[in-house]
């Protein structure tokens, strides 16, 4: 069941009232419309309320978005709840935890990268709520992901259980989930840290990081197929999310591994991305624009989310400027009716859906975090 218009209006007004954003509390029915959002947090509240109009409580997922996209929508909802100090969406996390498993038990399917997105979503939800069920689910998902590791190309996990392609995103997610778990499960920390170190050692030497410091899509043929003997960088696109997930993974790994190369590697990738994947206004773009399809529309927000994590550990003015610049452009140039956000952040607004909305919100929520000095 979707939220009705009255519920959306209430959620938006309640967010402003709760957080004190936008310069005033929610207005009464007789005092006129609420002022247009001016702070990053009030903008995030408006966008989040719109995102939730696509939430389907029966499935626990988001209409107009795919399975893995819904994991990212839950993640940005968690991140918004954290910066706004709001508990109004706690029931959404619980509902998705139970309802979405009707679609895929244990959040497992044929694709290891899909599994990784859900593992990170539940780790984030655990950090916010302290619900140990969420952390246990992430560990269960990781156990399944680890079965994708073998010796083809010297290591790494496969993209899918069909074992046809070793790519960047599945391995970056494997690294990030392992490192996050190592920092949260004190009993099994050494096991997860071992996996994270093993993955990063392999990934750094795999050839997927190219001469400009950016990460290409995977290993093998240009058509996306990996077999023994075809383990070179395939030269496919340097998608923004491939530059992002690794930042979050390395940031977590650096907390338990004193190797100075780890934070330097993260910084090099981050700087390469904000240098080479932007236009002359500093706006982030993916090569599929302006029509990125169901998957590509999600990518840019993932990069910003992970850049924010890196900035929290190793602040850089260039990171903050990049995040705020993109968040402001989304609001000013890629906003449609009802606080919907499009896929091309430099505009113009095209058509909004839950995937483009949650991706844009990663940037706006990130800017809200910076605005609040966190």
Automatic annotation (TrEMBL):
<dbReference type="GO" id="GO:0005975">
    <property type="term" value="P:carbohydrate metabolic process"/>
</dbReference>
<dbReference type="Pfam" id="PF03663">
    <property type="entry name" value="Glyco_hydro_76"/>
</dbReference>
<keyword id="KW-0378">Hydrolase</keyword>
<dbReference type="InterPro" id="IPR053169">
    <property type="entry name" value="MUG_Protein"/>
</dbReference>
<protein>
    <submittedName>
        <fullName>Glycoside hydrolase family 76 protein</fullName>
    </submittedName>
</protein>
<dbReference type="InterPro" id="IPR005198">
    <property type="entry name" value="Glyco_hydro_76"/>
</dbReference>
<keyword id="KW-0732">Signal</keyword>
<feature type="signal peptide">
    <location>
        <begin position="1"/>
        <end position="25"/>
    </location>
</feature>
<dbReference type="GO" id="GO:0016787">
    <property type="term" value="F:hydrolase activity"/>
</dbReference>
<dbReference type="InterPro" id="IPR008928">
    <property type="entry name" value="6-hairpin_glycosidase_sf"/>
</dbReference>
């Amino acid at each position: 069941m979707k939220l009705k218009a009255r519920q959306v209006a209430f959620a938006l007004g309640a967010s402003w009232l709760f957080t004190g954003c936008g310069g005033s509390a929610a207005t009464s029915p007789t005092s006129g419309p609420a002022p247009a959002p001016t702070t990053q947090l009030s903008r995030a509240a408006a966008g989040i309320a719109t995102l939730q109009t696509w939430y389907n409580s029966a499935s626990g997922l988001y209409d107009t978005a795919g399975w893995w996209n819904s994991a990212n929508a839950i993640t940005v909802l968690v991140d918004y709840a954290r910066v706004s100090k709001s508990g109004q969406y706690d029931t959404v996390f619980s509902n998705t935890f139970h309802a979405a498993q009707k679609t895929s038990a244990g959040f497992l399917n044929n694709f290891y990268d899909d599994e990784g997105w859900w593992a990170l979503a539940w780790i984030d939800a655990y950090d916010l709520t302290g619900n140990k069920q969420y952390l246990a689910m992430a560990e269960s998902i990781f156990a399944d992901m680890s079965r994708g590791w073998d010796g083809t190309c010297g290591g790494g996990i496969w993209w899918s259980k069909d074992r046809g392609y070793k790519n960047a995103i599945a391995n970056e997610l494997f690294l990030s989930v392992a490192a996050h778990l190592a920092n949260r499960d004190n009993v099994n920390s050494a096991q997860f840290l071992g996996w994270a170190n093993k993955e990063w050692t392999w990934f750094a030497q795999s050839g997927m990081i190219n001469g400009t410091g950016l990460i290409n899509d995977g290993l093998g043929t240009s058509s996306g197929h990996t077999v023994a003997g075809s383990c070179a960088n395939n030269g496919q696109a340097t998608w923004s999310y491939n530059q992002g997930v690794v930042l979050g993974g390395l940031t977590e790994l650096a907390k338990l591994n004193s190797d100075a190369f780890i934070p330097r590697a993260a910084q090099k990738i981050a700087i390469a991305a904000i240098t080479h994947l932007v236009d002359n206004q500093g706006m982030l773009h993916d090569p599929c624009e302006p029509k990125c399809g169901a998957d590509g529309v999600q990518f840019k927000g993932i990069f910003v989310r992970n850049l924010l994590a890196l900035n929290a550990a190793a602040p850089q003015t260039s990171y903050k400027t990049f995040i705020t610049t993109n968040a402001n452009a989304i609001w000013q140039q890629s906003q449609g009716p009802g606080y919907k956000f499009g896929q091309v952040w430099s505009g113009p607004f095209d058509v909004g859906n839950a995937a483009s909305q949650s991706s844009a919100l990663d940037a706006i929520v990130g800017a809200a975090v910076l605005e609040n000095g966190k």
